[in-house]
Known about the structure:
- The complex is a heterotrimer.
- Chain A contains 13 helices and seven strands.
- Chain A is mostly helical.
- In chain A, helix 7 runs antiparallel to helix 8.
- Chain A is globular, with a radius of gyration of 29 Å.
- Chain B has two domains: 226 residues, D-Maltodextrin-Binding Protein, domain 2; 96 residues, D-Maltodextrin-Binding Protein, domain 2 (3-Layer(aba) Sandwich).
- Chain B is built from 14 helices and 15 strands.
- In chain B, the strands form five sheets. A five-stranded mixed sheet of chain B has the order 11-10-12-9-13. In chain B, strands 5-2-6 form a three-stranded parallel sheet. In chain B, strands 3-4 form a two-stranded antiparallel sheet.
- In chain B, helix 3 packs antiparallel against helix 13 and helix 9 crosses helix 13.
- The N terminus of chain B is likely disordered.
- Chain C is mainly α.
- Chain C has 17 helices and one strand.
- The longest helix of chain C has 31 residues.
- Chain C is globular and about 105 Å long.
- The chains are: A mainly alpha, B alpha/beta, C mainly alpha.
- Chains in contact: A-B, A-C, B-C.
- The interface between A and C is large, with 56 and 62 residues.
- Strand 1 of chain B pairs antiparallel with strand 1 of chain C, so a sheet runs across the interface.
Amino acid sequence: MSTLTDPPKDSFRLSMLINDTRYRSLTFQALAFLALALSFMYLGNNLIANLRAAGLNINFGFLTDTAGYDISQKLVEYSNQDSHSRAAFVGLLNTILVAVLACVTATVFGVIAGVLRLSNNWLVSKLMAFYVEIFRNIPVLIWIIIIFTIMTAVMPAPRAFRGDNATATMVFDAFAFTNRGIYTPLPWFANGIFESQALNWLLVLVVACGSWFAARRVNVWATAKQEATGERPNTLPMLLGIWLAPFLILMLIMGLTWEYPALKGFNFQGGIKIGGPLIALWFALSIYTGAFIAENVRAGIQAVSKGQTEAAAALGLRPSKVMNLVVLPQALRIIIPPLISQYLNITKNSSLAIAVGYADITATLGGITLNQTGRAIECVLLLMAFYLTASLLISLVMNVYNASVKLKER
Amino acid sequence: MKKSVFFGAMTVAGLAAGAAAAATLDDVKSRGKLNCGVSTGLAGFSAPDANGEWTGFDVAVCRAVAAAVLGDGNAVEFIPTTAKTRFTALASGEIDMLARNTTWTFSRDVDLKFDFVGVNYYDGQGFMVPKELGVSSAKELDGATVCIQTGTTTELNLADFFRTNNISYEPVPIETNAEAQQQYLAGSCDVYTTDASGLAATRATFDAPDAHVVLPEIISKEPLGPLVRHGDNGWGDVVRWTMQALVAAEELGVTSANLAEMSGGTNNPEINRLLGSEGTLGEMLGLDADFGAKAIAAGGNYGELFAKNIGEDTPIGLARGLNALWTEGGLQYAPPFR
Amino acid sequence: MTDQTTNSIAFVADGNIPQSPPPARETGVVKWMRENLFSSWANSLLTIVAGLVIYMVLSGALPWMWNGVWTTSSLSECREVLAGEVGGCFSVLSERWNQLLFGFQYPQDQYWRPTLAFVLLFIAGAPVLFFDLPRKMLAFTAVYPFLAFYLIWGGTIMAPIVAFLGMGAAAFVFQTYGKGSFALGFFGAIVAAFAVWIIGGALIPEGASETAMLQAVPSRDLGGFMLNLMLGVTCVSLSVPLGIALALGRQSDMPLIKWICIIFIEFVRGVPLITLLFVASVMLSYFFPPDSTVDLFLRVVIMITMFSAAYIAEVIRGGLAALPKGQYEAADSLGLDYPQAMRLIILPQALKISIPGIVNVAVGLFKDTTLVSVISMFDLVGMIRGPILASTEWAGVYWELLGAAAILFFIVCYGISQYSQWLERRLATDHR
């Protein structure tokens, strides 16, 4: 609006600025800049005036204050004496955790459903079509609530496991499925080489990496031999040995033991607990996004022209090889770009965790911290900054990958 | 009131409204409606009934203020707020006062720049457990899973209580009371904790209320009261003294039944000042002389409101306890009207 | 058959063998089942598994639906009627249907207004969605937003009339001057619209809304599924023009404008809608002038419109990119300037390609309107999670309510996506 009220003073310069293509784009950009600057100034002014009237200020100092609340689902050490920023960090890790888990399972669901939807089994393909339609057309928030409700209502409470006439029992005496979450045995090292369990696990990882390198060398050697002599030596026993031997020896030395969950007091104690809210959110996001990925997969496979399949068959490739070597690589190129945006959607939809009480960053920083400190502007800004960074990083990584599988056109 | 063109157009369309920061009282009068922030639904305190009418103890405070200022207890626009949005709504002027079972704390009063104008309900955080667990004290809750309704000071009190008693717990923070209740009933938490009044209200809706007990420990002080923006003392006074008028009315025996009779004038000068037949108290606030009488007429005195909304004859069934008059051993105490 | 023995010739057929019926395994149901359900052992396994899944779901759901109770007034009554049998308490739907559809605050005797607006929506939307209908119907589409506003919000009829006149003035100015110079017409139209609004706004008397024919309903009284529909329709229709502008801006060769658009689009697409709604509910009020407050509904509309505009911009950018470069060059060689080229050559084609994508964004957006329940608006999900489940009568009813919500959304979203597929097929024929 303001751009209209103060046009350039010189009238015949005005016509030049508008009509002369050399200047026109500059004029427009100057006007746009002016409009932008003015509207920012306007909003900023309002903000300052409002804050002054309310006697508030923008101050991120609250982040170092004691948070004072507890979080049950945490990947790093946290107690209620830690700061709000630490609580936000715990929430951030939880967001990443559920997003990564859901991306993996959603892809699995999506690929299975997408392939089955093309199956020539009428019942299965209809069932998959039903799955896709029903999940795509109902809001994810409703799904999250429904799945969380199913979880709490259908799964047994821990107290159902108690007593002589318990209505629920543990599976193999090792896994307990309750409405508070799933409890599984926890592996740990009785006489580990290092004091901390984490370092011991790191050692396991290092050994596994070593095995992987050794296995690669064996494969390279076998390929070289095959090319030289035409016969591929049987590498299976060797590979098995390379993978298993160091691992088993390490486990024996460090004394791998399993800690089983057991009902003590109010809850199961020991073992690994995968919390109910996490499972509900994880499952809901996976199955919802899986429906979208299924459509992408189906579209990708159908987009590979039939001539390609026929040509591959004419070359004498077996059906599994046709799929792996001809159809999938081409379908992937079509599937991956929408897949990226589905992964982004999962990350963003994980913010609905507040509906199930999962302590992600929206629930910690944008929820309890915001409520307790009343610092709405600061919290929301930080929250948006986090999601923006996460989204940009995911698109960056996936775009790099996309570029690497893209058809190289020359 | 100076408004920009854009907002002029929007106001005509009914989508925006002017609200001056300077004098809320004038704003409310010129608008003809009181914008009162309430919670999105807590039985007994503020919840819409089947016809969409807001009822409850907090709602009654809003109605009393509206009656005192505008002479009509129904001239209230109830604006539902969540724990998250309530303070912004008040600070930005979207609502004139907030009556949403909000605990009076130092930082809210000082740091967030609000004024708590009184306490309409003295509450404290308690625990509810199923009877079959056989728990008789909150100190036996080591290792329990606790459902919390988020957004109040509940999380902090809970953490403090378990830390001072050196026992552990697993918190499950839930947004709405209805969902927390569902989690608790399904046994996905052992304990439900919120303000004792909320526990009573929740327990009242259960199929078998007797199967659940509220533990004796009250682990915090929760003075709940209405609040207004800091700095507008005139408006703060209006809300404060309207509330006190309700308490004073109970103290002086003024009820909605005998209000009309007493308004004519009595032998007790304090009643006369309260109801406006004597003195100029209303004028000092910028209200009509009989603002107290109007506030009481909107729903009754403090005791009547309590009995009607959350008292022992309602499904909520709360005893007066700390909220009895000071003359009966409680904490409700109205400063003198003179 | 008998001829064979009498004739000396070893074999001469002098008649057709009567057609024998095909083997049982090659006809009818059996054939169909063999081909479609049991063609291999893996397929049979899949069929059996799928059948089991279907059986389990139906055996649980059907008795529950069949035994449903529709007439009680509270959950405890309903449980008494059921007396321990499996069955749904659908009476929550028959008792609270009005709250689910219209929210709990919309005046009950005025329900015909939003209902009428909803019905008229189909008439107004038809010419936009189906190209074969007479173009004259678009006139009603142009009037519809103002009519719907008047019906739903009520109040003085002057407000929508002034708004409509403003838009009319803008259209007139654009028609008159836009042919000569697009910029002149465009900015002139904006000036004209605001001039009419300001003058008209000043003419409306102060208390007009109180004495109006239709009772004024403040927007915080809107709720239920109506709120979802209103947010969806309003935000999508507002965000299409904004999205076109953003998409063109992103394609622009003016670096400043291009970067403004890129930053805006990437920013909005990078954050979840829920944070934008937090902005609407807890931050946005601080950015409006100190002497005014803006309705939460309007704040939410602003944020959702921004959100969907960014997504629609990306869809349209895809459409623009899919046009062959020859189209741009042809427009240039005809001597058309930028607005003309866009209006007459590029956008009609690009938009046509983008329509299915836009419809998908619209479906997604409509589903996302349920998120407003998180910021204390009583949409369908908000009504369920808030007043209904918090009431003493119905605390504890989940499946019936959530199922009803799911069905309502499914009907609308599935309908739109079917339309989108129909449209895709129709548009595809043009390229054959």
